[in-house]
Hints:
- The chain is built from three helices and ten strands; from the N terminus they run E-E-E-E-H-E-E-E-E-E-H-E-H.
- It has 186 residues and is mainly β.
- It has one domain (2-185): VC0467-like (3-Layer(aba) Sandwich), CATH 3.40.1740.10.
- Strands 1, 2, 3, 4, 5, 6, 7, 8, 9 and 10 form a ten-stranded mixed sheet that branches.
- Strand 7 and strand 8 form a beta hairpin.
- It is globular, with a radius of gyration of 16 Å.
- The termini are far apart.
- The model has no long low-confidence stretch (mean pLDDT 91).
Amino acid sequence: MDAWRGRLLVATPAIGGGVFARSVVILLDHDADGALGVIVNRPLESEVHRLLPDWTSSVTSPTLLFQGGPVAVDSALAVGVLADPAPADGPPVGWRPMAGRIGLVDLDGPPPAPQVLAGLRVFAGYAGWGPGQLEGEVAEGSWLVLEAEPGDLISRHPDSLWHDVVRRQPGDLRFWATLPDDPSEN
């Protein structure tokens, strides 16, 4: 089950509306109890400095709060990517590894030093699935499970991330990037 941890869920055209339409989710956890991730291509209009002024210099541009998903939208969580190579003195205080260089950063602790992380995002809420739910959605064709690249979580162009991820896939799948948002415009 851990095989999907650290991978991307990319919404297919089968998800026609709502928060998951054309979304890219990075899976932070996936086991027999379900799955948890954050949508990495849904920036909100709220600036991080309004909610967490001490964290502004740690957040990757655009320095906006992101909609992580439909669950617990009134709470915030920070997800960071460790610098490569990792700092000699180890990960920052409050770091919880999730998948490779990606981990959760405790917002109640001090902001990490800039050289410790390659980037950081703050999310309002998260995406969650119960046992077997995500596997069912993948089987019915709602999601593609794809390899993540290090910059996906902290892309400086989150609005084009769905297209960018689909376009870099091999074979005919990359042609999905040309699909219009509204299929009736095809």
